[in-house]
Prior knowledge:
Number of strands: 11
Structural class: mainly beta
Helix content: under 10%
Amino acid sequence: QVQLVESGGGLVQAGGSLRLSCAASGRIFSNNVMAWYRQAPGKQRELVATITSGGRTNYAESVKDRFTISRDNAKNTVYLQMNSLKPEDTAVYYCKVAQDTIATTLVYWGQGTQVTVSS
């Protein structure tokens, strides 16, 4: 089992910055993909960014050049640096870890952290 604990959310003015953290504990494999998703009120959960164990990253078009995902493999922690925040970035942000076994892919989610950007 894997537990994910997010932190760093809050209220910020448009143009400001926040840094989210997600610490994973439990049975973490050395090879996995960590990701951030977000869900705004009345909308579906959407992918924000992913990062592999080797450091390869992928971003949603809406956050490219503003958000940076990174990870510390020694601490099993993934970060999301969010700059130039916009009101439309307001959402609950969720951390996700996906790791493969021989039989299947195991997926774990954090509890979410609220990010609110005021105009």
